[in-house]
Amino acid sequence: MQSLTFLLLAVYAPNQYNHRFFTQLVSLCGGYSDRPLFLVGDLNVVHDPTLDCSGVASYRRLGSRRGIEFLLSTLELVDGWRALHPTERDFTHTSRAHGTHFRIDYALMSPSLFSRVVEVQHSSIVVSDHAMVKVTIEVPEGMSPRGGWKFPVYLYEDVHF
Asked: What are the tens digits of pLDDT across the range 95-119?
């Protein structure tokens, strides 16, 4: 049976651009360069103000594009949603206070993982001020999923986890 091994990294980036945060993130990922990377989360950055923001004036309040561009180029990642929806406007965050919408939640991945992606979708914004980013990946032939993933209970007791 084949396996699909990759590094899954969930990220919540600072609200204000912090170059040190992004360089440390790249450094952390560099330690796992032997496997594909799947980086997901709230990066608090609009990559393309024209497509990923409901208004250019409101974009100025968000972090610098340099952070996501640094991740994409240095780690050679693909923005899964944008690659599948190159001209579509869809948002993952709503600022109710300002009445603006942004795409700041991402699923970035190595090209080898992206080649297995079937779809990347954004859910409706219901519970919080962010939408869920859903990624559907094709499982290698001969590998059949058995139920859903469950958090290993023993890790609750692991002080080093």
From this structure: 777 778 889 999 999 999 999 999 9
Amino acid at 108: L
Query: What does the alpha-carbon distance between residue 53 and residue 91 come to, in Å, rounded to a whole number?
Result: 7
How far apart, in Å, are the Cα atoms of 13 and each of 27, 118, 122, 148?
A: 15, 27, 19, 28
Three-state SS at 155: helix
Task: Measure the CA–CA gap between 30 and 7, rounded to whole angstroms.
Answer: 11
Instruction: Tell me how many degrees the CA angle 36-72-69 measures, rounded to the nearest 5.
Output: 165
Provide the residue type at 20 as one letter.
Answer: R
Q: Would you call 128 exposed, middle or buried from its count of C-beta atoms within 10 A (0-12, 13-18, 19+)? A: exposed
Residue with the two structure tokens 């890790």: 155
Give residue 119's identity as a one-letter amino acid code: E
The pTM score is 0.81
Q: How far apart are CA 87 and CA 76, in angstroms?
A: 21
> Which among 13, 26, 123 is positioned nearest to 64, based on CA atoms?
13
For residue 37, what are the β-bridge partners?
Answer: 7
Q: Tell me the C-alpha distance between 57 and 106, whole Å.
A: 22
> For a pLDDT cut of 90, what percent of the chain falls above it?
40
